[in-house]
Amino acid sequence: MRLPAPLAVFLSIALLISCASQEPEETLFPKIPNVREDHHSYSNPEQVRVSRVELDLDVSFERKSLAGSATLLLKRQGAHADLVLDTRDLAIKTVETAGASGEFSPTEFTLGDSDPTLGAPLRIKLPADAERVRVHYATSPGASAVQWLGPAQTSGKKHPFLFTQSQAIHARSWIPIQDSPGVRVTYSATIRTPKELFAVMSAEMEAQQPSDAETPGEYHFQMPQPIPAYLIALAVGDLAFEAMSERTGVYAEPSVVERAAKEFEDTDDMMVAVEKLYGPYQWQRYDILVLPPSFPFGGMENPRLTFVTPTILAGDKSLVSLVAHELAHSWSGNLVTNATWRDFWLNEGFTVYLENRIQEAVFGRERAEMEAALEVQELRDEMKELQPRDQVLHVELKGRDPDEGFTLVPYVKGMLLLRAMEEAVGRDRFDSFLRGYFDRFAFQGVTTADFVQYLSEYLLSPNPELAEQVPVEDWILKPGLPPEAPMPVSSAFERVEALAHAWQGNKEALADVPNTQWTTQEWLRFLRSLPEEMDPERMKQLDDTFNLTASGNSEILHQWLLMSVKNGYEPAYPKVEEFLTSVGRRKFLKPLYTELAKTDEGRRRASAIYKKARPLYHPIASTTIDEILGVASE
Ligand code: BES
Ligand code: ZN
């Protein structure tokens, strides 16, 4: 239909005006820009968006490679744009497309230059009717997301093991995909494993033909909820399963699984606690996979299947706040996701806040406050070493590796901001606000500006006193902690600190320290309250009385070994070596190597240990240690 010219002009002006008025309204926080653009992905979801991924991969431990295909379902905004995917070190064999008829035929593609941080863009020509793309490819042995472990690196020592770690931007090293947290996909996977190995993924296991001594295995997985690429995960190894409740269980090597199921038996209670506060768990099952010790992180919140380090198996549940943390990501992170890595604090700060609430609900306020107080102390210590630009929540990461944003600032400063708001409006109001936030943004990516906009509407407007008490914009944009930042308090910690000081002043004998009932958290506070410098005689007294060098608790042992290196306490050195050659968790390795590297003698020791240990570490950890020791990476 043709409209008379003046009417057409009038209508287009009206349309323009109505579009303009849909621009975000006046915001209370004009200084917080709404940046949705992801500087860490080459992909073009505004033109062509991948909505589903179907993987079909063979696992080869001989070649250290995953090989097969990824079929991507597309949502196209126009008929012209190419599809751009993220890749890193992938060997692309062929690319095919299919239209409604379903027949695949080859199409042209180009792989761009590789950037050290971002990898290489894969640009694929799309015929006008293309609805699916199939990429045939293989991963390289050095794929940054995949760690291939030999039998010696497992507890069983008989079978190899493999696991992926896709966050932040490593998914592209094993799947050609739009690797941006703002793009969500559902996925399915067929994984073929070698004999005697078992496969698990961050998805529902639909069918399995377990491998035995004679036959290889074939596993089918389905993830029906849309998730960002960084949450796609796979592990293959000699795995056993033990149920903890109807909906929770543990996968681990057979020699570890029973111990782990006992350690994590409160997981269902934790789920009940969060559900009561913030709404139903959306992912059906919650299982935990205990990895071999070279896993570089404490935990990773892969949906339906959290990955954890075995170093939290203390035997007394004292380190399970890590499970509370990863479980909490089922709401903050996996359900409501940071839109870009700049907004990482929306994932981690909210999660540390939820973690703490879970710990309080399941283990009581005293323990939760001790854990929070330790976290705040660690933040204050770390902040002293950070440049101002890295002390802000809305951190600028353009042109940088998103891993540079991985500090305690998003975690603990983020948590403290939420705690400050909770304290200002009261728990009930804050909890219903958070619950509303999780409902409003479920299965979406959220920017920092989206969050403050929602905050203005649903918390600041109804509670005007909040804006006076909590300078939200300063929290988000300014370095450091505002002077009125909340401070978790623990009377148990005050007692422990007093004892540490009394012993220092020779006013208390160690034998009288009532340590037998101390929790892990009190031990950590006690050790951290001692002076930086202590002579070997004092160190020996501590060790003789408390047997610290023999501690079976990874956090206490780590703290003690760090003090031992600082003070040249020789009797602990064999243990330092044993620890560094058996554990690959970066949080433990980094401070120990850093401390060793401060003296010539220490640096010599560190290099000798590292020579043995490096092959055991994940690339994420060895890259960090290479920098500390000045080893040129290969
Ligand atoms: N999602 C993170 C781990 C992560 C973040 C991996 C960014 C790669 C890039 C996970 O939830 C986490 O925070 N793990 C912590 C433990 C937690 C209790 C603070 C870790 O591994 O140290
Ligand atoms: Zn986390």
Please provide a written account of the structure:
It is a single chain. It is built from 19 helices and 22 strands. The strands form 5 sheets. It has an 8-stranded mixed beta sheet with strand order 5-4-8-2-1-11-14-13, with no helix packed on it. A 5-stranded mixed beta sheet has the order 16-17-18-20-19, with helices on one face. Helix 3 crosses helix 4 and helix 5 packs antiparallel against helix 6 (365-383). Bound molecules: ligand BES and zinc ion. Ligand BES binds next to strand 19 and helix 4.
Quick synopsis:
With 634 residues, the protein is an alpha+beta fold.
Count of DSSP strands: 22
Count of alpha/pi helices: 19
Report the portion of residues in β strands.
15-25%
Mean pLDDT reading:
94
CA distance, first residue to last residue: 67 Å
Work out the radius of gyration.
26 Å
Spatially, the strands of the biggest sheet line up as 5-4-8-2-1-11-14-13
Q: Helical percent range? A: 25-40%
| Overall form | globular
Unreliable stretches: 13-24
Main pleated-sheet profile: 8 strands, mixed
Strand-pairing-aware structural class: alpha+beta
**Distinct small-molecule ligands in the complex:** ligand BES, zinc ion
